[in-house]
Amino acid sequence: xxxxxxxxxxxxxxxxxxxxxxxxxxxxxxxxxxxxxxxxxxxxxxxxxxxxxxxxxxxxxxxxxxxxxxxxxxxxxxxxxxxxxxxxxxxxxxxxxxxxxxxxxxxxxxxxxx
Length: 114
Ligand SMILES: [Cu+2]
Hints:
Helices cover 0% and strands 52% of the residues. With 114 residues, it is mainly β. It has a single domain (2-99), classed as Immunoglobulin-like, CATH 2.60.40. It starts with a strand and ends in a 15-residue tail after the last strand. Copper (II) ion (CU) binds next to strand 8.
């Protein structure tokens, strides 16, 4: 399992919603959020997707919203460029390239999924 982080920037005058993501390196990709407080956090599917306000941005980062890769098919070595495609609510797609990094992880648990 792995996760992807990015800053989503919306340069349009209307809110944009990301409803799905995909990458060739993983059989299953989900949009996740991290919930909870104190010492216990858990992650779950983000209902409604990631909303990027008009002219604004939405940050995907450890401990917050992220793109979850479940069922990574091959070892992804640091430095490898991994293509992602985001599907928007209106059906359009947006692609970007992420560079793989070693990541020890924050405090959230990546172990359990519904
Ligand atoms: Cu997750």
